[in-house]
Structures are given as structure tokens and as C-alpha cells.
Amino acid sequence: MAPSSGEAREFDPEAVRVKYQEERDKRLWEGRAAIRDLTGDDEFAAYRRDPFTRFIERDAVHDDVDVAIVGAGLAGVVVGAKLREAGLARIRLIDEAGGIGGTWYWNRYPGVMCDVESYIYLPMLEEMGYIPKTRYAFGDEIRQHLDSIARKYDLVDDALLHTRVERTEWDERASRWIIRTDRGDEIRARYVVMAPGILNLMKLPAIPGMELFAGTSFHSARWDYEYTGGSPDGRLTNLADKVVGIMGTGASAIQCVPPLAESAKQLFVFQRTPSAVGVRGNRPTEEDFAEDLEPGWQFARMENFQAVMLGLPVEADLTDDGWTHHFSGVYSPRRAPGASVEEMMRDLEVFDYGVMEEHRSRIDELVRDPEKAEILKPYYRYLCKRPCFHDEYLQAFNSPNVTLVDCPGGIERVTERGLVVDGQEFELDCLIYATGFEAEMTPFARRAGHDIVGRGGVTIAEKWEDGMSSLHGMMTRGFPNMFIMPAPGQQGVVTVNHTLISVIGAEHIAATVAQLVARGVEVTDVSREAETAWTEEILAGYVEGATAMLAACTPSRINNEGNPDAVSPRNGQYPGGYFGFKQVLAEWREQGLPGLECDEPFVAP
Ligand SMILES: Cc1cc2nc3c(=O)[nH]c(=O)nc-3n(C[C@H](O)[C@H](O)[C@H](O)COP(=O)(O)OP(=O)(O)OC[C@H]3O[C@@H](n4cnc5c(N)ncnc54)[C@H](O)[C@@H]3O)c2cc1C
Question: Is the CB of 498 under 6 A from ligand 1?
């Protein structure tokens, strides 16, 4: 697809609105968002088990460190590396996974890759002297890269893996955090950094009869290669005589349907809502890619992408891909000189329609069966669901062994033999839940998956029950010496390239800790005034009625499954955008961390 001119083709706004609403209403049924609780010990707990690394018994660890980091994904690794650079000696990464990588440890389904350009998604390329092999890297390369960073910065030997943090509690008398795990460890830490992930909670739908299925079933984030054979980049050698069903057509399914179609005897794709699938254009990295790169090139490239995504002027769009062609026109619409708000909104609707028409035409070009093509067409506005990009997904539906099952009203039930949709049973040997993750907007306390107990015995879940209050989204009063890595819905900023905000957050935390250490500060906490002022800035950015457009969207993770108003405005974003946020953080550090109370005795409220 060429960059969209935004020109409408026979655009009839009323007809389009009606069509979008009809499609949305088909999918907005009660109970659509119901999910299994995977935290218990029932039969569904098995879906969470780590299939990739053998569990090895070890003795419980009791020690005292400078920093404990909960989560060894991209964010945990980068903040660990930056803290190491800042001179911190004893750092312990802790993760439930059996290895480093977080998302990229858990998600090993065939075809898994980043959907943001690898030269800006893989962190710390310059520090590592590494250039990704392709424009969009496969998961294994990303995981190995994160592992290499952790090794280079000496974070692996002390990491506690296959270790779930169950409680993090502030010890007022010792001025230490005490981290207790499911392996009996008791780690005392001067600082704690929470990096539990943004898409770390697998979503398994609650469909009647799931426990009855007699075949093999697993979530795409715990791929069972023992059953399917093959590897993330190879043919799935055991599926040649198997009938496979995949539930879901979001970002994960888009990537793993093509290899499944190639390998399985028969593949049923159960689709509730189609994704908008744009051109990927993946290719090997040009041999001369690194030739003219100046020091600082990676961060500059990340910011160039961010500027383009925000519609800010740049000399050149260095990434020049499906993201940069369409996103800013929809996300940051321009107001023509002299145009009213209504006119701007009308232009936006026209532009959005043009973008979606390009996606729909692409389906007509690539999918031979017109009936399948129609079912695959997304009828909603462009950013209602995270856009997807792939060069082989749509073509997979031309294979005679691939059947697309349209189920906007969901799956009726699961039986011993397979799935029932509209009264028809589909018999399966294997059922793959490519049903995604709880939204990034999931409250932090739930994403962290354990009790975090601050001063006076108050948990973070209690403190933030009615919405967040923080300083910069990374520190919060009553939880001294604790930092939280930035995430969407967390009083910071949202970026499509999550690495950018992770790097900014990691550098900020490391520089803040370095200042505190240099000043000999033992305990620091956010002042009430500083926290109130930041939270007020977030609330000031909240525009009444801003959720109306989201509410009109097809239900998805992005609009809280059709219920955007349920998200507290306190969990919003900093209104100054990414560049404003970066500046605020830099100035705050330059000014010597105003708004922090250092080594002041705690007075219970
Ligand atoms: C398939 C897939 C593709 C993606 N592609 C992109 C992309 O192209 N671009 C992009 O910007 N983003 C992408 N994302 C989002 C991705 O999650 C982030 O980019 C990034 O990897 C998040 O890193 P993280 O360290 O914050 O979290 P994670 O990678 O989720 O790591 C968090 C870790 O914390 C651990 N943890 C959590 N709680 C506990 C606890 N109580 N005890 C012990 N351990 C705990 C988890 O086990 C996990 O390993 C993708 C996500 C998925 C699922």
C-alpha cells in the first residue's frame, strides 16, 4: 500500500457510520470480555506452565541487594543495564519465566516477530554493537538480544528465574524492601523496580465446556512444540495429519496462521473481529545499513519515528512503513487553516475511511474467494484495534486446507471433540487460543500479580483503587525507594514503540538513583504536593467526551472491550506528549529532584 492520500472513494458518511455500527453491535454482546482467572490452582493453571525451560530445584535465597527488579523482560533488562552503568553493584532480576526476555521469552509461536521496525525496537543496539538481521526481527533474535544485554551487564548470574514474586513489603525500621517469592526466597533490597510487563497476562476466554476438550490445547504464549513439532522458524513437523483450530485473529494469530496453514492437514481459523492487515515489507538488513551511522543514531531514529507518528515535522521519515504512513493522520489530525472543529472531524473521518478502504481493497486483491474476502474485511475506524502488518497472512486463506469460520457472536461452547459455532460442531485434534492478553490499561496492581505493601501497611491496590496518583507515573507516595517502569495508562505517555518509553524510563530511574546515592540519601519518598500536582496535570489533560470516538469503536483491547469510560481519568496520559514528557523528566533531574522527601521520618497519616 502506498502512503494514503486520505482521499475518499465514494464516501457516504452516513452509510459508513451505519455499517460500522452494525458490525460493532454484532460483537458487543454481554459476556464477550469474560476471561478465565489463571491465577488459581485449578485445571486452567496448566495453561500458564513454562514449556520452554526445565524447572530445577534450588535452595531459597536470603540476601541483601542494592536493587531488586521484578520482571526480566525488555524493561527489566534495560533498567538493569542502566543501573549497572550508574554504578549499582548488587542487582537481582526476578522472573517467573525460566529465562530472560519477558514477552520474547514467553511468545515463541511460529512466525513471532516485532511489529515495529527492529532498528528501533531492539534496545541498546549501539551499546551492544549489533544490527538486527531483518527489518522486522523474529522473536528468537529479540530474545537472544535481550539475553546478550543481560549477560553483558552481568545481570544473569544473580537473576532468580522460575521464581514468582508473591509479596513486596516495605520494612520501615530497616529501610529496605523485602521481596518474598514462591521459592521461599527473602530478598532485602534498598531499591525496588517494578517491570512486570504491559501484555504479560495471558487472556483465556471463559467459554462453556473448555475443560471437556479431549485434544491438545494451549495458548499462543505457551506454544507446545512437543505436540506440533518444529520450531519458531520452521515447519511444524507433527501437524501433517492433524486438524488444528486457532481461536482469534489479532496480532499473534496474524503471524502464526501462515506457518500453521503450511503444516496442518486442516486449519480452522475462528474469527470474532478481523484485524486491519497492512503491508509488512520485511527484508534482510541492507549490507551497508551501518556504514554511515553516527553515534546516537538509534535514539535519533526512535525519536524520528515518534515525531512522524505524532505528525511533527521531520526532514525524512527514516522508518517509512505502514505505521508511519497512516498513524499520525488519524491520531493527530491536522486542522486546515480556518477550519472549524466540525470540519476537522469530517476531514478526519474521510481520511480514516480512505485508510480502511485501502486495507479492504488489499483483501480483495489477495484473497481469491470473495466470500472469505468479505468476512476478512475490517469495518471500523483505523485505530479501533492495534493495526497489524503481514505479507503472507491474507494469502493463507487461499489454501484449500484453510477454513475461515466467522463468529462475531463468539464461540458457543467447547466440547470433547472441538468447538461449536452457531450450532455447528468443528472437530479438532488441537485447539490454539490466540486470544491475546489483558489490556495494557489493566491496573498496575493486577499486572504486578502480587501484593506490594508500602508504608503503614497500605497496598498499592488499595492506594490506587480509584485511580493512580504518582510522580511522573514512576514513583508514588508511601512506597519509598520504589520505581515503576512506564506503561500505558500509568500517568506517563503512550508510544507505539514501547522500547522508546522503556529506555527513557530506565535512564530516568538510573539517573535518579545515581543522584540519591551520590547525595547519601537512604530513603526517598514523593511529597504529597508533588504527587497531587502531577496527578492534576494528568486530569487537566482529560477531555470530557474524549472517549466518545473510542466507544463507537468495535470492542477491543483498546477501548476496554467497548467500555472505555470504565477506565479512571487518573490513569490517563501526560498531556504534553512524548517530547514534553522527556523534557519534564530531564528538567526535574537537573533541578535536583524537587518534590522528593529525603530521609524524613515517616509520619502515619
Ligand atoms: C507477541 C508480541 C509482540 C509484540 N510486539 C511489539 C512490538 O513490535 N513493538 C512494541 O512496542 N511492543 C510489542 N509488544 C509489547 C511488548 O510486551 C513490549 O514491547 C515489551 O516487550 C514489554 O516488555 P516488559 O519488560 O515491560 O514486559 P514483559 O516483556 O511482559 O516482561 C515482564 C516480565 O515480568 C514477569 N513478571 C510479572 N509479574 C511477575 C511476578 N509477580 N513475579 C515474577 N515475575 C513477574 C513476567 O513473567 C515477564 O517475563 C509485543 C507483545 C507481544 C505479546
Answer: yes
- Mind listing the pLDDT tens digit for each residue in 92-101? 999 999 999 9
Confidence band, pLDDT 50/70/90 cuts, at residue 7: very low
Distance (Å, rounded) from C-alpha 68 to C-alpha 88? 11
Give the C-alpha separation, 58 to 67, whole Å: 22
pLDDT tens track for 412-470 = 999 999 999 999 999 999 999 999 998 877 889 999 999 999 999 999 999 999 999 99
Establish whether residue 97 lines the binding site of ligand 1, counting it when its CB lies within 6 angstroms of any ligand atom: yes
Residue 464's closest CA among 603, 567, 551, 537? 567
CA separation (Å) from 384 to 11, 24, 151, 278, 427?
19, 11, 39, 15, 33
Q: 498 alpha carbon to ligand 1 midpoint, in Å?
A: 10
Which atom of ligand 1 lies nearest, measured to the CA of 495? 11
Q: Running DSSP on this structure, what letter comes out for residue 35?
A: B
Q: Of the residues 49, 199, 257, 386, which should be mutated to test ligand 1's pocket, given the most ligand atoms within 8 Å of the CB?
A: 199
- Residue 439 CB partners (closer than 8 Å, separation 6+): 557, 558, 560
pLDDT tens, position by position, 562-592 = 777 777 888 889 999 999 999 999 999 999 9
**Contact (Cβ atoms closer than 8 angstroms) between residue 138 and residue 112:** yes
- Site to probe by mutation for ligand 1, drawn from 94, 112, 200, 219 as the one with most ligand atoms within 8 Å of Cβ, is 200
β 596-598/524-526 pair status: antiparallel
| Ligand 1 contact via 112 beta carbon (within 6 Å) | yes
Atom of ligand 1 nearest to the CA of 199: 17
402 sits in which H/E element: strand 402-406
Give the Cα-Cα-Cα angle 429, 218, 393 (nearest 5 degrees). 80
List phi, psi (to 5°) of 524: -130, 145
pTM (whole model) above 0.90: yes
**Within a 10 A sphere around the Cβ of 314, how many other Cβ atoms?**
15
Q: How far is Cα 132 from Cα 15, in angstroms, rounded to an integer?
A: 45
Cβ-proximal residues to 35 (8 Å cutoff; 6+ apart), any chain: 203, 204, 205, 206, 438
- CA-nearest residue for atom 24, ligand 1, is 197
**CA–CA gap between residue 158 and residue 84 (Å, rounded):** 13
Task: Compute φ and ψ for 152, nearest 5 degrees.
Answer: -60, -40
Whether 491 and 470 have beta carbons less than 8 Å apart is answered as yes
Distance 412 CA to ligand 1 centre (A): 31
Whether the CB-CB separation of 162 and 50 falls below 8 Å is answered with yes
CA 67 to ligand 1 center in whole angstroms: 20
Distance (Å, whole) CA 595 – CA 17: 48
CA 255, CA 369: separation in Å to the nearest integer? 21
Name the closest-CA residue to atom 33, ligand 1.
71
Kindly report, residue by residue over 234-271, the tens digit of the pLDDT: 789 999 999 999 999 999 999 999 999 999 999 999 99
Q: Of the residues 100, 103, 435, which should be mutated to test ligand 1's pocket, given the most ligand atoms within 8 Å of the CB?
A: 103
Closest CA to 426 of 273, 224, 223, 270: 270
| Radius of gyration of the chain from its Cα atoms, rounded to whole angstroms | 24
Q: Please give the distance of CA 45 from its chain centroid, rounded to a whole number.
A: 22
